[in-house]
Predict the 3D structure of the following.
Amino acid sequence: MPVALDRPSGRLVVGLQAVRECIRVRGRTIRQLNLTAGDNPKLAALERFAMDQGTAVVIRSSRGEMDRLAQGAMHQGAIAIAPPLELQDWGEVSKRPDLLAVALDRVQDPQNFGAVVRSAVATGDAAVLWGEHAAAPLTPATFRASAGAIEHATLCRVPALKDALRAARDAGAQVIGLAAEGSSLLSAVDLRGPTVIVLGSEGTGLQPAVRRCCTQLAAVVRPRVLDSLNASVAVAIALYEASKQRDNL
């Protein structure tokens, strides 16, 4: 029988894939898993998986209760209340000799933000860096768009992106801004050393102050019909190029 229960405090994760990865990584620390009541085989399999991973509280709830818990997010019948994400210290991450990071300059669309995180984890295990102002928040929409990759990501939020980029540059990393008018194609740039790839906002690209922190600007592709690529597509291509070069070391 469906059970109604007030949502405890914690991070809201919705959607089958996002919840499955959250269970895989967070298992015993998940505070509550709510599944839509019924005999859906995908939800039944998810419930068994959660129990195997040590999730203590699994509740079957009515569709109306699920919609209320999801707060408007598309949940696909699965909602987890998880502990907060652990953010990493950029000062430490930026010192890695094999540093590969994606810096997001005012990327505000949660779908793009989540898709960038997915590409960062899947393509090059790259860190994701962003400033705390004028950026997409870490919301259920972001978690869902990442398809669970955010549970595996190295996430670095900093007070000012330009300061973080300048510090990485001063420490020896190359900081490459993605721009259609860049002097080089990214495929012609040596990406094997410590590298930060900077992606600008969906509408206006890189801020002037952020551009000044870059060691160079590079184009992912030369524009032909359209002026630019979707943010997450540009990052996926850039990280694939970096990964390919590093695999050939």
About this structure: The chain is about 35% helix and 20% strand.
